[in-house]
Write a structure and sequence with these properties.
Helix content is about 0%, strand content about 40%. It starts with 11 loop residues before the first strand and ends in an 18-residue tail after the last strand. It has a single domain, classed as Neuraminidase, CATH 2.120.10. The chain has no helices and 24 strands. By secondary structure, the protein is an all-beta fold.
Length: about 300
Protein backbone atom coordinates (compact mmCIF):
# COMPACT_ATOMS: atom_id res chain seq x y z
CA UNK A 1 0.00 0.00 0.00
CA UNK A 2 2.67 2.47 1.00
CA UNK A 3 2.37 5.94 2.49
CA UNK A 4 0.06 8.45 0.79
CA UNK A 5 1.97 10.05 -2.06
CA UNK A 6 1.45 13.06 -4.31
CA UNK A 7 1.29 11.48 -7.75
CA UNK A 8 -0.83 13.03 -10.52
CA UNK A 9 -0.53 10.87 -13.62
CA UNK A 10 -1.12 11.87 -17.21
CA UNK A 11 0.24 8.93 -19.23
CA UNK A 12 2.26 9.95 -22.24
CA UNK A 13 3.61 6.69 -23.58
CA UNK A 14 4.51 5.40 -26.99
CA UNK A 15 2.70 2.56 -28.73
CA UNK A 16 5.69 0.40 -27.97
CA UNK A 17 5.60 0.79 -24.19
CA UNK A 18 5.11 -2.96 -23.83
CA UNK A 19 8.60 -3.51 -25.20
CA UNK A 20 11.53 -2.96 -22.88
CA UNK A 21 13.79 -1.48 -25.54
CA UNK A 22 11.63 1.60 -26.04
CA UNK A 23 11.82 4.67 -23.85
CA UNK A 24 9.03 6.93 -22.64
CA UNK A 25 10.67 10.22 -23.50
CA UNK A 26 10.85 11.39 -27.10
CA UNK A 27 8.31 8.89 -28.46
CA UNK A 28 5.18 9.78 -26.50
CA UNK A 29 1.59 10.13 -27.51
CA UNK A 30 -1.02 11.74 -25.28
CA UNK A 31 -3.79 9.36 -24.17
CA UNK A 32 -6.80 10.22 -22.04
CA UNK A 33 -7.32 9.04 -18.49
CA UNK A 34 -10.84 7.69 -18.15
CA UNK A 35 -12.83 7.23 -14.99
CA UNK A 36 -13.82 3.58 -14.66
CA UNK A 37 -17.60 3.71 -14.50
CA UNK A 38 -18.63 0.99 -12.05
CA UNK A 39 -21.56 2.34 -10.00
CA UNK A 40 -21.65 -0.63 -7.62
CA UNK A 41 -18.01 0.03 -6.67
CA UNK A 42 -17.77 3.81 -6.38
CA UNK A 43 -18.67 5.44 -3.05
CA UNK A 44 -17.96 8.61 -1.04
CA UNK A 45 -15.00 6.71 0.43
CA UNK A 46 -11.72 5.88 -1.29
CA UNK A 47 -11.48 2.82 -3.59
CA UNK A 48 -8.02 1.61 -4.58
CA UNK A 49 -5.72 -1.36 -5.29
CA UNK A 50 -8.02 -3.43 -7.54
CA UNK A 51 -7.45 -7.13 -8.30
CA UNK A 52 -9.67 -9.33 -10.47
CA UNK A 53 -10.22 -12.95 -9.49
CA UNK A 54 -9.23 -14.91 -12.63
CA UNK A 55 -11.63 -17.75 -11.76
CA UNK A 56 -14.83 -15.90 -10.85
CA UNK A 57 -14.41 -12.39 -12.27
CA UNK A 58 -14.99 -10.97 -8.77
CA UNK A 59 -13.32 -7.65 -8.02
CA UNK A 60 -11.28 -7.41 -4.84
CA UNK A 61 -10.22 -3.92 -3.78
CA UNK A 62 -9.34 -1.69 -0.84
CA UNK A 63 -11.78 0.79 0.64
CA UNK A 64 -10.53 3.55 2.94
CA UNK A 65 -12.04 6.67 4.42
CA UNK A 66 -11.90 9.86 2.30
CA UNK A 67 -8.53 10.73 3.85
CA UNK A 68 -7.10 7.34 2.80
CA UNK A 69 -6.91 5.66 6.19
CA UNK A 70 -8.50 2.54 7.65
CA UNK A 71 -7.68 0.20 4.73
CA UNK A 72 -10.06 -2.74 4.40
CA UNK A 73 -10.53 -5.51 1.81
CA UNK A 74 -13.86 -5.73 0.02
CA UNK A 75 -15.17 -8.00 -2.73
CA UNK A 76 -17.72 -7.10 -5.39
CA UNK A 77 -19.15 -10.39 -6.61
CA UNK A 78 -19.55 -10.92 -10.32
CA UNK A 79 -23.06 -12.32 -10.75
CA UNK A 80 -25.13 -12.59 -13.92
CA UNK A 81 -22.76 -10.30 -15.80
CA UNK A 82 -22.71 -7.48 -13.23
CA UNK A 83 -20.73 -6.58 -10.12
CA UNK A 84 -22.83 -6.56 -6.98
CA UNK A 85 -22.58 -4.22 -3.97
CA UNK A 86 -19.24 -4.94 -2.26
CA UNK A 87 -19.03 -6.91 0.98
CA UNK A 88 -16.21 -7.82 3.35
CA UNK A 89 -13.78 -10.27 1.81
CA UNK A 90 -14.03 -13.87 3.07
CA UNK A 91 -10.58 -13.53 4.64
CA UNK A 92 -11.14 -10.18 6.38
CA UNK A 93 -10.11 -9.79 10.01
CA UNK A 94 -9.82 -6.83 12.44
CA UNK A 95 -7.07 -4.35 11.65
CA UNK A 96 -5.70 -3.02 8.38
CA UNK A 97 -5.60 -5.09 5.17
CA UNK A 98 -4.78 -4.16 1.61
CA UNK A 99 -2.97 -4.83 -1.68
CA UNK A 100 -4.66 -8.06 -2.92
CA UNK A 101 -3.04 -9.99 -5.77
CA UNK A 102 -4.05 -13.26 -7.48
CA UNK A 103 -1.80 -15.85 -9.06
CA UNK A 104 -2.70 -16.20 -12.78
CA UNK A 105 -4.41 -19.56 -12.13
CA UNK A 106 -6.46 -18.10 -9.27
CA UNK A 107 -5.22 -20.66 -6.73
CA UNK A 108 -3.18 -18.27 -4.59
CA UNK A 109 -4.03 -14.87 -3.12
CA UNK A 110 -1.44 -12.49 -1.67
CA UNK A 111 -2.23 -9.45 0.50
CA UNK A 112 -0.96 -7.44 3.48
CA UNK A 113 -2.56 -7.30 6.91
CA UNK A 114 -2.08 -6.29 10.56
CA UNK A 115 -4.10 -9.32 11.73
CA UNK A 116 -1.14 -10.47 13.80
CA UNK A 117 -1.80 -7.57 16.18
CA UNK A 118 -5.25 -6.40 15.05
CA UNK A 119 -3.91 -2.84 15.12
CA UNK A 120 -4.57 0.04 12.76
CA UNK A 121 -0.86 0.92 12.65
CA UNK A 122 0.64 0.55 9.20
CA UNK A 123 3.99 -0.37 10.79
CA UNK A 124 2.42 -3.75 11.74
CA UNK A 125 1.62 -4.77 8.15
CA UNK A 126 2.97 -8.13 6.98
CA UNK A 127 2.61 -10.14 3.77
CA UNK A 128 0.16 -13.05 3.87
CA UNK A 129 -0.67 -15.82 1.41
CA UNK A 130 -3.71 -18.09 1.18
CA UNK A 131 -4.59 -21.02 -1.09
CA UNK A 132 -7.99 -21.77 -2.62
CA UNK A 133 -9.37 -25.26 -2.04
CA UNK A 134 -11.17 -27.50 -4.53
CA UNK A 135 -14.50 -26.25 -3.13
CA UNK A 136 -13.54 -22.64 -3.86
CA UNK A 137 -13.00 -21.56 -0.25
CA UNK A 138 -9.83 -19.90 0.96
CA UNK A 139 -7.61 -21.56 3.55
CA UNK A 140 -6.45 -19.78 6.69
CA UNK A 141 -3.96 -17.12 5.50
CA UNK A 142 -0.35 -17.69 6.50
CA UNK A 143 2.21 -14.95 7.08
CA UNK A 144 5.37 -15.33 5.05
CA UNK A 145 8.37 -16.09 7.27
CA UNK A 146 11.40 -13.97 7.92
CA UNK A 147 13.32 -12.61 6.13
CA UNK A 148 10.36 -11.74 3.85
CA UNK A 149 8.36 -10.22 6.71
CA UNK A 150 10.33 -8.10 9.13
CA UNK A 151 9.86 -5.78 12.10
CA UNK A 152 9.10 -3.04 9.57
CA UNK A 153 6.01 -2.83 7.36
CA UNK A 154 5.79 -4.73 4.08
CA UNK A 155 3.71 -3.38 1.18
CA UNK A 156 2.24 -4.45 -2.16
CA UNK A 157 3.36 -8.09 -2.70
CA UNK A 158 3.57 -8.80 -6.42
CA UNK A 159 4.83 -12.15 -7.76
CA UNK A 160 6.31 -11.70 -11.24
CA UNK A 161 6.99 -13.76 -14.33
CA UNK A 162 10.68 -13.99 -13.40
CA UNK A 163 9.88 -16.06 -10.28
CA UNK A 164 10.53 -13.31 -7.74
CA UNK A 165 8.06 -11.82 -5.25
CA UNK A 166 8.43 -8.01 -5.31
CA UNK A 167 7.36 -5.86 -2.37
CA UNK A 168 8.03 -2.56 -0.64
CA UNK A 169 9.51 -2.16 2.85
CA UNK A 170 11.29 0.38 5.03
CA UNK A 171 13.42 -2.31 6.71
CA UNK A 172 17.06 -1.78 7.68
CA UNK A 173 19.61 -2.22 4.91
CA UNK A 174 17.77 -0.18 2.29
CA UNK A 175 19.05 2.79 0.32
CA UNK A 176 16.67 5.34 1.78
CA UNK A 177 13.12 5.31 3.11
CA UNK A 178 10.78 2.74 1.52
CA UNK A 179 12.64 0.55 -0.99
CA UNK A 180 11.57 -2.18 -3.39
CA UNK A 181 12.82 -5.62 -2.40
CA UNK A 182 12.34 -9.06 -3.88
CA UNK A 183 12.17 -12.54 -2.37
CA UNK A 184 12.37 -16.10 -3.68
CA UNK A 185 11.99 -19.48 -1.96
CA UNK A 186 14.91 -21.82 -2.61
CA UNK A 187 15.26 -25.29 -1.08
CA UNK A 188 12.70 -24.43 1.58
CA UNK A 189 14.38 -21.14 2.54
CA UNK A 190 13.50 -17.62 1.49
CA UNK A 191 16.19 -15.28 0.22
CA UNK A 192 15.58 -11.53 0.06
CA UNK A 193 17.50 -8.83 -1.77
CA UNK A 194 17.25 -5.12 -2.42
CA UNK A 195 16.82 -4.10 -6.07
CA UNK A 196 19.79 -1.78 -5.68
CA UNK A 197 20.79 1.78 -6.64
CA UNK A 198 19.73 1.44 -10.27
CA UNK A 199 16.17 1.12 -9.01
CA UNK A 200 15.90 2.49 -5.45
CA UNK A 201 16.94 5.95 -4.24
CA UNK A 202 17.36 7.79 -0.94
CA UNK A 203 13.65 8.66 -1.11
CA UNK A 204 10.50 6.46 -1.24
CA UNK A 205 9.84 3.55 -3.60
CA UNK A 206 6.90 1.71 -2.04
CA UNK A 207 5.05 -0.20 -4.81
CA UNK A 208 6.26 -2.03 -7.90
CA UNK A 209 3.88 -3.59 -10.41
CA UNK A 210 5.64 -5.64 -13.12
CA UNK A 211 3.69 -6.23 -16.33
CA UNK A 212 2.61 -9.77 -17.14
CA UNK A 213 4.97 -9.84 -20.11
CA UNK A 214 7.91 -9.23 -17.75
CA UNK A 215 9.31 -6.40 -19.86
CA UNK A 216 8.24 -3.25 -18.02
CA UNK A 217 6.62 -2.09 -14.84
CA UNK A 218 5.43 0.86 -12.77
CA UNK A 219 7.10 2.04 -9.56
CA UNK A 220 5.13 4.16 -7.07
CA UNK A 221 7.49 6.72 -5.54
CA UNK A 222 7.30 9.93 -3.53
CA UNK A 223 7.85 11.90 -6.75
CA UNK A 224 5.24 10.06 -8.80
CA UNK A 225 4.82 6.95 -10.87
CA UNK A 226 8.05 5.91 -12.57
CA UNK A 227 8.52 3.68 -15.60
CA UNK A 228 10.88 0.69 -15.22
CA UNK A 229 12.24 -1.75 -17.79
CA UNK A 230 13.73 -5.23 -17.52
CA UNK A 231 17.24 -5.61 -18.93
CA UNK A 232 19.80 -8.39 -19.08
CA UNK A 233 21.33 -6.86 -15.96
CA UNK A 234 18.02 -6.67 -14.07
CA UNK A 235 15.31 -4.09 -13.56
CA UNK A 236 16.28 -0.53 -14.39
CA UNK A 237 14.48 2.61 -13.31
CA UNK A 238 13.63 5.00 -16.14
CA UNK A 239 12.07 8.47 -16.11
CA UNK A 240 8.89 9.44 -14.26
CA UNK A 241 5.60 9.64 -16.08
CA UNK A 242 4.97 13.28 -17.05
CA UNK A 243 2.70 15.90 -15.49
CA UNK A 244 2.23 14.51 -11.99
CA UNK A 245 0.96 16.44 -8.98
CA UNK A 246 -1.74 14.42 -7.27
CA UNK A 247 -2.62 11.17 -5.54
CA UNK A 248 -2.36 8.10 -7.80
CA UNK A 249 -1.77 4.75 -6.09
CA UNK A 250 -2.04 0.99 -6.58
CA UNK A 251 -1.31 0.48 -10.30
CA UNK A 252 -2.75 -2.67 -11.90
CA UNK A 253 -1.39 -3.45 -15.37
CA UNK A 254 -3.82 -5.14 -17.78
CA UNK A 255 -3.22 -8.78 -18.77
CA UNK A 256 -2.10 -7.69 -22.25
CA UNK A 257 0.46 -5.30 -20.68
CA UNK A 258 -0.87 -2.35 -22.71
CA UNK A 259 -3.13 -0.50 -20.25
CA UNK A 260 -3.36 -0.03 -16.53
CA UNK A 261 -5.83 0.85 -13.79
CA UNK A 262 -5.03 2.99 -10.79
CA UNK A 263 -6.72 5.01 -8.06
CA UNK A 264 -6.59 8.72 -7.46
CA UNK A 265 -8.36 11.57 -5.73
CA UNK A 266 -11.00 12.54 -8.27
CA UNK A 267 -10.58 16.21 -7.26
CA UNK A 268 -14.30 16.84 -7.67
CA UNK A 269 -15.48 15.94 -4.19
CA UNK A 270 -15.81 12.26 -5.16
CA UNK A 271 -12.88 11.09 -3.01
CA UNK A 272 -10.68 8.30 -4.36
CA UNK A 273 -11.89 6.69 -7.59
CA UNK A 274 -10.58 4.11 -10.06
CA UNK A 275 -9.30 5.20 -13.46
CA UNK A 276 -7.89 3.49 -16.54
CA UNK A 277 -4.99 4.70 -18.64
CA UNK A 278 -4.46 3.41 -22.15
CA UNK A 279 -0.75 3.21 -22.94
CA UNK A 280 -0.90 1.84 -26.48
CA UNK A 281 -2.95 3.83 -29.01
CA UNK A 282 -5.99 1.98 -30.26
CA UNK A 283 -5.89 -0.63 -27.50
CA UNK A 284 -8.19 0.07 -24.57
CA UNK A 285 -8.82 -1.98 -21.45
CA UNK A 286 -12.44 -2.32 -20.42
CA UNK A 287 -12.66 -4.72 -17.47
CA UNK A 288 -16.04 -6.43 -17.53
CA UNK A 289 -17.85 -8.80 -15.23
CA UNK A 290 -18.14 -12.03 -17.28
CA UNK A 291 -21.13 -14.33 -17.20
CA UNK A 292 -19.94 -17.23 -15.06
CA UNK A 293 -20.54 -20.77 -16.38
CA UNK A 294 -22.24 -21.69 -13.11
CA UNK A 295 -24.82 -18.99 -13.69
CA UNK A 296 -23.43 -16.55 -11.11
Amino acid sequence: MGAFRAVYLLPLLSAGLAFATERVAGETERNAIKHWDAPAISSPDWESHPAFDPRTGDLWFVRSDPKFSGWHLLVARCERGAWQAPVDSPISRPGLEADPWFAPDGKTLWFISTRRTGSHKSADLDIYRTERGADGTWAQPVALPAPVNSAAAEWFPRPAADGWLYFGSRRPGGLGKDDIWRARERDGRWVVENLGPGFNTAEDESEFQPAANGRWGIISTNVGLVYAVATAQGWRREQPFPEQNGSEIGPLIAPDSRSFMFSRDAADGASGELFISQVSPGVGWKPECPSHPSGR
